[in-house]
């Protein structure tokens, strides 16, 4: 089940990313707006937009309200302000507070209150105070205050007034406005605008005197923050510009110069502003502390305290600036209507706006698709550690692009949803991976001693290593499957007439279930029957083994000076049989190799000594001794220049030994290190010579059984190559050590050798193919964390292609290796001679190594 689920490892992360994208773009598009808007606001707050020098704010602030009383003020006050601004040559004046109601009789009391405040105000006895008193007194005496303000508006000649509108529903009939205030636009533009449900225009007298009007609606987002300006709204089939658009038009161009070439762009004279949905513009908002922002109190301007030069040719925006009339914007939590309008006007005139081009949506979808593919395929391949780093990198890149484009180019590409999708994909993938690992760990604790260990025990049992199989089974829980395997193991011991070991197995089963099958009868039979032993055959060597009784008797003789674990002393030197030991050359899996000398002919030899009594149980010792001398005799019959010559074999003080020719050079395993690899041509020729030697041995019915680089000696000085350890592999094939260590090299074993089947020369060919692979690229074709997994790979799974490790190798060598490593022996070369011929042909296609001397590079 775990292996099947592993094929769908892309599901958790990819599915989570897909769900986030589907929610954010298809199901509930507003669900992730808060994150996008947070980034948008953060960039605006750090933008430090400078205010234009030609905009002046006249604030109706707390100081002004204390001088003229509570709102609304008499119209004469505004008329006096307009007169002051006209005298100071202000280019355009825009009011942000509405003038929608006519002055009535109740205003008389307000005027009288204003006169009383004026007497005690800072205006004092100035000329401006006298004019303001005259205007207010005229209102008390019955002069129409609306007419006074209308006359002041007309006198200035460039005043923009606000229209209070409400949006929603279908657009009604055109508001009662002069035609000159409407914008003519094509149907697509008109249909794109928001519809007006109700409108409260200024009084007709004011409209007749005003140069332009604009709606004062400020559209908040869902969180109540103002981030855009509706540049125009629809009433009937006409458009009313926003107050900011009307002020910008009057400040920079002739009336009527507001144009919409399409729903995506607003043109005011030579200025252009990009638009979004419903003709919205996203300005870069000013803050109250913006650099260059000019603003004065209403009372300051009215009193003449502001120099005329500060107002000349300026865009003057008049409106509320007290704490009760503020709104939250993207750049500031409390901005006055005056400041918001000024930001909108500046954005239209200076181009300080944010835009979302048509390609923005395409870029966003590409980013989201990329994140989806990343979460689905890259994360499972990278794993938890690299996956976390990769996810952090992806999120960082997307965030930097989002914030960078917004801050540097004023382009709003919304990539936060892709960031969330990437994080969600990794979070779900990581959670699933941790759960999977926990399950594997918990199941592994149960599975290892049952499934894996049982499989390993069965492998040992098939190979005849019954003692090691018993030790392996005992590490498993004594459940029904294990008891069945133990039962058959006991039967195998009985067939070998090893009744004591069979009894040990049956007694172990009885600790769980004494009545298991016919266990009682078998236990009685193996305990009553005597142990039969075959007489030891005569060794086939001129140096016969010492009788077991004599060897043990000498071991008990303390005065003999014999050492069971090493050569005995003879005179001033050490000897083994008739050979004088000079020094130890090295240790192998089953013994020690010494440098010796034959005193009879003064020949230097290498002696491999194996302590059979230490390596094998008593019941196996005689069989091991017989096999040792038989295989040594067969190896001694081999006479080939590439096979080490065996001179003699014998046994001395429990040490079985083989005397062979002494070789100089190094094992080919020295050249399996990736830093010491031989040239490919040299490797092919060396392996071809090895294959030819193996072909000779196979014709003599001798199978090496343990071919590997460590059993091939090579002397680059003399170009001499020798195969060693003929006769030793057969000894280790079906036996085990007392310590339970399996001898041999599983990485080089053929599938049939691992399964305990009969072998021929094609098994050596498989091992030689593994050696060729390792010598060419520095790694084994089959690798695993445990012996059962390694055996499974060798038996059932294909090896990694050699050219995936070293692509520069010729294609022909890959075909040769594939054939030698075939799972079935029938699919390999018929003989090693054919393999050698193919290797030599392949080597011809490669350039020689630096000179005509094949191994010159190895010489001093």
Query: How many structural domains in the coordinates?
Result: 5
Q: What Rg do the Cα atoms give?
A: 50 Å
Which structural class do the helices and strands define?
A: alpha+beta
Largest sheet: 9 strands, mixed
Strand content: 15-25%
Share in helix: 40-55%
Count of helical segments?
30
Low-confidence stretches: 1-8, 444-449, 531-565, 568-572, 731-744, 849-860
Keywords:
9-stranded mixed beta sheet; 860 residues; 5 domains; 7-stranded antiparallel beta sheet; alpha+beta; disordered N terminus; 27 strands; single chain; disordered C terminus
Describe the structure.
It contains 30 helices and 27 strands. Strand 10 and strand 11 form a beta hairpin. The N terminus and C terminus are likely disordered. The strands form six sheets. Strands 1, 2, 3, 4, 5, 7, 8, 13 and 14 form a nine-stranded mixed beta sheet that branches. A seven-stranded antiparallel beta sheet has the order 18-19-20-21-22-24-23. Strands 6-12-17 form a three-stranded antiparallel beta sheet, covered by helices on one side. It is elongated and about 145 Å long. It folds into five domains: 118 residues, no CATH class; 295 residues, no CATH class; 65 residues, no CATH class; 104 residues, Phosphorylase Kinase, domain 1 (2-Layer Sandwich); 190 residues, Orthogonal Bundle (Transferase(Phosphotransferase), domain 1). It has 860 residues and is an alpha+beta fold. It starts with a helix and ends in a 16-residue tail after the last helix. Helix 16 packs antiparallel against helix 17 and helix 18 packs antiparallel against helix 19.
């Amino acid at each position: 089940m775990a292996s099947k689920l592993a094929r769908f490892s892309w599901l958790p992360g990819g599915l989570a990313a897909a769900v986030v994208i589907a929610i954010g773009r298809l199901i509930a598009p507003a669900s992730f707006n808060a994150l996008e808007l947070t980034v948008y606001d953060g960039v605006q707050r750090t933008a430090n937009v400078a205010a234009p020098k030609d905009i002046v704010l006249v604030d109706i602030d707390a100081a002004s309200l204390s001088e003229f009383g509570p709102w609304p003020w008499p119209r004469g006050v505004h008329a006096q302000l307009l007169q002051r601004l006209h005298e100071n040559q202000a280019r355009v004046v825009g009011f942000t507070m509405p003038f929608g109601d006519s002055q009535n009789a109740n205003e008389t009391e307000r005027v009288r209150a204003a006169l009383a405040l004026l007497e005690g105000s800072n205006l004092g006895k100035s000329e401006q105070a006298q004019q303001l008193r005259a205007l207010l007194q005229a209102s008390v005496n019955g002069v129409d205050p609306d007419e006074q303000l209308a006359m002041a508006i007309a006198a200035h000649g460039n005043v923009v007034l606000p229209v209070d509108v409400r949006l929603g529903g279908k657009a009604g009939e055109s508001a009662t406005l002069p035609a000159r205030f409407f914008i003519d636009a094509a149907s697509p533009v008109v249909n794109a605008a928001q519809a007006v449900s109700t409108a409260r225009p200024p009084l007709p007298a004011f409209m007749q005197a005003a140069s332009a009007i604009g709606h004062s609606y400020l559209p908040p987002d869902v969180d109540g923050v103002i981030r855009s300006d509706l540049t125009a709204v629809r009433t009937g089939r006409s458009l009313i510009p926003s107050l900011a658009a009307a002020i910008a038009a009057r400040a920079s161009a002739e009336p009527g110069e507001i144009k919409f070439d399409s729903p995506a762009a607003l043109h005011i004279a030579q200025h252009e502003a990009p638009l979004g949905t419903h003709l919205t513009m996203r300005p870069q908002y000013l803050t109250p502390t913006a650099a260059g922002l000019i603003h004065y109190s209403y009372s300051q301007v009215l009193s003449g305290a502001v120099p005329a030069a500060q107002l000349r040719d300026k865009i003057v925006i008049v409106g509320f600036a007290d704490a009760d009339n503020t709104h939250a914007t993207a750049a500031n939590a409390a901005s006055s209507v005056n400041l918001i309008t000024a930001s909108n006007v500046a954005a239209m005139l200076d181009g300080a706006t944010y835009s979302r081009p048509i390609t923005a949506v395409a870029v966003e979808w590409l980013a989201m698709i990329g994140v989806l593919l990343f979460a689905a395929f890259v994360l499972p391949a990278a794993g938890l550690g690299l996956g976390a780093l990769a996810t952090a990198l992806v999120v960082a890149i997307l965030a930097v692009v989002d914030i960078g484009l917004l801050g540097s180019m004023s382009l709003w590409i919304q990539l936060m949803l892709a960031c969330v999708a990437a994080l969600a994909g990794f979070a779900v993938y990581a959670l699933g991976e941790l759960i999977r690992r926990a399950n594997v760990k918990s199941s592994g604790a149960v599975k290892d001693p049952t499934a894996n260990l049982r499989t390993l025990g069965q492998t040992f049992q098939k190979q005849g290593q019954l003692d090691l199989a018993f030790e392996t089974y005992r590490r498993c829980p004594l459940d029904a499957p294990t008891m069945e395997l133990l039962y058959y193991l006991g039967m195998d011991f009985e067939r070998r007439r090893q009744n004591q070991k069979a009894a040990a197995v049956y007694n172990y089963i009885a600790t769980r279930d004494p009545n298991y099958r016919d266990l009682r009868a078998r236990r009685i039979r193996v305990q009553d029957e005597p142990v039969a032993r075959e007489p030891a055959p005569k060794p086939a060597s001129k140096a016969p083994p010492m009788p077991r009784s004599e060897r043990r008797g000498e071991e008990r003789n303390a005065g003999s000076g014999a050492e069971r674990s090493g050569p005995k002393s003879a005179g001033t030197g050490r000897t083994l049989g008739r050979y004088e030991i000079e020094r130890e050359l090295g240790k192998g899996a089953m013994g020690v190799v010494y440098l010796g000398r034959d005193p009879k002919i003064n020949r230097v030899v290498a002696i491999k000594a194996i302590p059979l009594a230490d390596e094998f149980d008593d019941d196996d010792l005689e069989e091991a001794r017989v096999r040792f001398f038989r295989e040594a005799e067969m190896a001694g019959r081999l006479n080939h220049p590439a096979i080490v010559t065996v001179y003699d074999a014998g046994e001395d003080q429990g040490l079985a030994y083989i005397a062979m020719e002494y070789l100089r050079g190094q094992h080919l395993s020295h050249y399996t290190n990736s830093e010491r690899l031989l040239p490919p041509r040299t490797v092919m020729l060396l392996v071809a010579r090895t294959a030819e030697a193996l072909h000779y041995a196979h014709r003599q019915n001798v199978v090496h059984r343990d071919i590997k680089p460590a059993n091939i000696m090579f002397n680059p000085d003399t170009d001499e190559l020798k195969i060693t350890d003929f006769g030793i592999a057969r000894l280790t094939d079906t036996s085990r050590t007392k310590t339970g260590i399996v001898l041999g090299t599983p990485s080089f074993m053929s599938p049939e050798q691992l399964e305990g089947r009969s072998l021929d020369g094609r098994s050596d060919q498989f091992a030689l193919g593994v050696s060729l692979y390792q010598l060419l690229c520095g790694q084994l074709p089959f690798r695993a964390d445990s012996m059962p997994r390694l055996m499974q790979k060798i038996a059932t799974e294909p090896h990694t292609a050699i050219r995936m490790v070293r692509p520069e190798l010729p294609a022909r060598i890959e075909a040769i290796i594939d054939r030698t490593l075939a799972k079935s022996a029938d699919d390999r070369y018929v003989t090693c001679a054919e393999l050698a011929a193919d290797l030599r042909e392949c080597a011809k296609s490669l350039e020689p190594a630096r000179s005509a001397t094949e191994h010159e590079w190895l010489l001093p």
